[in-house]
Write a structure and sequence with these properties.
Blueprint lengths: L7 H12 L21 E5 L2 E4 L4 E4 L14 H13 L8 H13 L5 E5 L2 H16 L3 E5 L25 E4 L4 H11 L3 E7 L14 H13 L3 E5 L22 E4 L10 E5 L4 H6 L10 H16 L2 H23 L3 E4 L6 E4 L6 H12 L2 E2 L14 H21 L7
Parallel strand pairs: 3-13, 5-6, 5-7, 7-8, 8-9
Antiparallel strand pairs: 1-2, 2-3, 4-10, 9-10, 11-12
Bound molecules: 4'-deoxy-4'-aminopyridoxal-5'-phosphate.
């Protein structure tokens, strides 16, 4: 017998179970979150999000990265509506594609050209293919545990993946020069490229910024072996800086993959590259029915306007620091050990002695009840729409989260 369904979210879940595999697929499945999180959403505005049950949250996931200047930002919305009225999916690209490529080439030091697609996986896959096409070699080095997308060559899930799909991948440890050198040696004279995340943002782990010594060594080894250095900036791009995340450690890649924040929620990805790979890129057959659509490119141009004119990365950093410092003070006051890692624009909060994330779940669920949407394991995302008042509201919710946790923990729990 079916359980009685009550709320709109529960009703939608019941309907979805019949017509959508697993009721939802992929990383947005709410069963990856503590029970009590919503699955379906109704609308969003600025840094606020409403679920289908009408509950409002200050949102610290920003749609898992794409929303960078806030939902419905008027400058982006205006550009989108103007382009929509003119046309989106045409027989070829609009002028927006050239304008956007010019813009990226002007902003990003390593970029001499850009090509466009739709999702982060499109962009990282194109980078790997391009590294092979440009060098005539096969091996790609990937950091253990790094996420580069959902295709068989990079998916973290083994279902449907064959050994052949990964035959030419070799792994190393992020920020570990020794393991990188070993992997380069193993690739021998067949090294096509090394792909690195902007920083180490693996799921459920403390985040690690790139060690400049490691970053410079990646560059040297790619140069010495005529291989491509690929930065996967899909998650961090346009949040830490507009120039490419490894610019912050003084290292320029040959190729970069971008998506998420590039168009404030409109579907767009980009690959940027230097002169060395221009010829190979021009010969590659990369395309898709929607890859030249103009609306998302208009949205990207407007998003970059807003990020540049408001010094977006600094604004997100300031608000992220306000949140981080507030949480650190609360954790100390409650005597609960937490670890906050990663760049302030992309906060990650994990609890000490929390192997199964029970503390993280309890804390974030309590914050959710107080109108703040946090993630217990994944890095979160700031947007330029978060104000001091939103952060202070969030800190009231995190205080309630710590109180709920303290009430559940035995006295003298310490860290
Ligand atoms: N690379 C990184 C670093 C990512 O975070 C993601 C998405 N989480 C991807 C690639 C894949 O992007 P998409 O989900 O848009 O295909």
């Amino acid at each position: 017998m079916d359980l009685p369904v009550e709320t709109p979210d529960q009703k939608l879940r019941a309907r979805a179970r019949r017509v959508i595999p697993g009721g939802m697929f992929g990383h947005l499945h709410s069963n990856r979150l503590p029970a009590g999180y919503p699955q379906f959403f109704e609308r969003a505005d600025g840094c606020h999000l409403w679920d289908v049950d009408g509950r409002r949250y200050v949102d610290f996931m920003c749609s898992w990265g794409p929303i960078v200047v806030g939902h419905q930002h008027p400058v982006v919305t205006e550009a989108v509506q103007r382009q929509m009225a003119a046309g989106d999916c045409l027989n070829g690209p609009s002028a927006r594609m050239v304008e956007l490529a010019e813009r990226l080439v002007g902003l990003i030091p390593h970029a001499d050209w850009a090509l466009f697609s739709k999702n982060g996986t499109d962009a990282t896959t194109t980078c790997a293919t391009l590294a092979r096409a440009g060098t005539g070699k096969r091996k790609i080095l990937v950091a253990q545990g790094a996420y580069h997308g959902a295709s068989p060559w990079c998916s973290p899930n083994p279902a449907g993946v064959t050994a052949e799909d990964r035959a030419h991948l070799l792994t190393f440890k992020y920020n570990d020069v020794g393991s990188l050198e070993t992997a380069v040696q193993r690739a021998g004279d067949d090294l096509a490229g090394v792909i690195v995340s902007a920083y180490r943002h693996d799921y459920g782990l403390d985040q690690e910024l790139p060690d400049p010594v490691f970053a410079r060594r990646v560059r040297e080894l790619c140069d010495a072996n005529d291989a491509a250095l690929i930065v996967d900036d899909v998650r961090a791009g346009f949040r830490l800086t507009l120039r490419g995340s490894w610019d912050l450690v003084g290292v320029q890649p040959d190729l970069s993959a971008w998506s998420k924040a590039i168009a404030n929620g409109y579907a767009l990805a980009a690959v940027t590259g230097n002169e060395r790979f221009r010829d190979a890129a021009s010969k590659l057959f990369v395309t898709g029915s929607f890859w030249a659509s103009a609306v998302s490119m208009a949205a990207a141009l407007a998003t970059l306007d807003v990020l540049e004119s408001t010094d977006g990365p600094r604004r997100m950093r300031d608000m992220g620091l306000r949140l981080r410092e507030g949480i650190a003070a609360q954790a100390a006051a409650f005597g609960i050990g937490v670890r906050q890692s990663g760049p302030p624009q992309m906060p990650t909060l994990l609890f000490d002695d929390d192997p199964d994330c029970a503390k993280g779940d309890c804390f974030t669920l309590e914050a959710l009840k107080h109108g703040v949407y946090l993630h217990p394991r994944h890095n979160m995302f700031m947007s330029t729409a978060h104000t001091e008042a939103d952060i202070d509201f969030a800190l009231e919710a995190t205080k309630a989260g710590f109180a709920a946790l303290a009430a559940r923990m035995p006295r003298g729990h310490g860290s």
